[in-house]
Amino acid sequence: MFSIGDKVVYPMHGAGVIEAIEEKEVLGKKRKYYIMKLPLGEMRVMVPLENAEDSRMRQIIDDDGYKKVVDILKGHGGTMDPNWNHRYRANMEKIKSGNIYEVAEVVRNLSAWHKEKGLSNGEKKMLDNARQILISELVLVKGAKKDQMEEMIEKLLA
């Protein structure tokens, strides 16, 4: 499905580059794994090949996708549920989906909510996580540095 050198997104972790495909024994069971290096934090993730499709692992977006993310971040958010619990669950589903456009919506909407009404600690953590996932993919798409992408996102959300 994927090859060494592919730039991919692993939902809830972010984007990275597949640096190897190795057979490893984990908990007494031999499996093949994608060894993925994430650019933010220099973390490595092992994804079993057999689980890659179920996990919604995908290629990173292209330049057209990047433009769509920029448009989402510049846009106005829809109405959000005033109930913290409902809002949290809806946003978590979007992040878990691995869909970059839904993650961008979460970043945009929670950032706007934070400016207007403030966020709970749980939602602050969610916003930070969604931002990191978004930044990790945009860094790979544009070949930019983390700081540059953070700055660009801040300007778009202002």
Word description of this protein:
This protein has 158 residues and is of the alpha+beta class. It folds into two domains: 7-59, Thrombin, subunit H (Beta Barrel), CATH 2.40.10; 63-157, Up-down Bundle (Methane Monooxygenase Hydroxylase, Chain G, domain 1), CATH 1.20.58. Helices cover 49% and strands 21% of the residues. The protein is built from five helices and five strands. The protein has helices at 63-74, 84-97, 100-116, 121-142, 146-157; strands spanning 7-10, 14-26, 29-37, 44-48, 58-59. A five-stranded antiparallel β-sheet has the order 4-3-2-1-5. A hairpin with a 6-residue loop joins strand 3 (29-37) and strand 4 (44-48). Helix 2 runs parallel beside helix 4, helix 3 packs across helix 4 and helix 4 (121-142) crosses helix 5 (146-157). The protein is globular. The N and C termini lie far apart (39 Å). The relative contact order is 0.15.
